[in-house]
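Reviewer 2 asked us to include a model.

Predict the structure of this chain.
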Amino acid sequence: MKLIMSAIELVIMWIVIPILLFGGAPFSSPVAITVIASVIIAGSLLLSVYSALVVFYWSGRLPTTSFGPETTVQSGPYRFVRHPFNAGFILFLFGMGFLCGDYWRVLYVSVIGALAVIYSLLQEYLTSKRVTGYSEYKEKLPFMIPKAGKQIPFDKSTSIPWQFIVASFVVKLVILFILPSKVKNTKVLRDRRPFVIALAHQTHFDGPLIFYSTWRYIRFVATAIYVDRLGLLGWLAVIPVRRYAVDTSAIRQMLSTIRQGVPLGIAPEAARSWDGRPLHTKRRYGNSSGC
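Predicted model (structure tokens):
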């Protein structure tokens, strides 16, 4: 039901309101204004779509009132402002207002923009009631307009690299069209608690197949020499581990990642398993890390 209500919210915002505001508009602005408005529209759409993807990959939810995240999102645009998704929506409406050529409609856009600000304040009120630590997050960042010195530092344990989201989409499309696959036990992969994926690592396709199987942000663990040689692995927030050494830095990164609720992907044999049989690993049950 919450997902349906969330979809209704998004339809009203991005389809119903623009149609009501700009249906029948002449769209006859001068060339210079048309170019500027088009840039604003493209940038605002990119901002809102990226913000929504960050929220979804991090929390499995959407930036709406009825289906909002149950944890603070401190990644992507949410490192700079608290409401980038709604800010993108307001910019989109103003861009359309200047593009349409009927500038009286910009006055109506201003009214809708004010309502969007009130809508954002309502989201904050509801979020502060259900999300622990949101008040502290609220004090760190401005509302919708970035300010110098008011941002959250980038940390791969709490921030999703944009390269990860792009790579996830590319892998999903490639596998979907070239090697359609069926994923079993998807309920486990949708669990928002942290967990460890232990790979029976047989081929180089195991990592991409995990990308295909879930929409979650996962941090993989790999041998440091490969991370150093392949820049893409660093962009994807892979944790490098030095072989034949007690790598305390890697251990700290893994613990920090788990504490933030992000799953880990590990090959227990530290390399490919040629026979495909998993190792006999010890299992410990408890709630120390939610694993």
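Residues 31-59 form the longest helix (29 residues). Confidence is low (pLDDT under 50) at residues 285-291. We have added this to the supplementary material.
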